[in-house]
Design brief:
mainly alpha, 2 domains, 4 helices, flat, transmembrane, transmembrane helix, membrane
Length: about 120
Amino acid sequence: MFGLYMLAIYLGIAIIVTGFVALLAVVALAVGLVTHPIRTIALVFHKLAALAAGLALLLALVVWFWTDHAKPDFVPCFWGSIGVIVASVIIRAFAEWVLERPTRAERRAMSRAAAPTFDSRL
């Protein structure tokens, strides 16, 4: 009986911690959308594309090894998974370009640093 109570307590703690982490993620997303909206959206697409590619890879492996290749649903399911992986790679590449691109403030700082300074001694 003691084991079931402890299991319930541990599950309750795990649920509370998961909810707290989800709340922190929502707050971080809200703050990110307010301060850097384009970068935050690119980061969200970056993460979602990675998740979609991983799940599509698992589905492609399951379909390849555990499905009869003669079945009519093999071809659309397998090539659909491959298409999702390719699309995810393209989306991640674009999101990575957006994330690595210098911000407007960084570009201004670079142009100020590259601008020649006036020297009155010459």
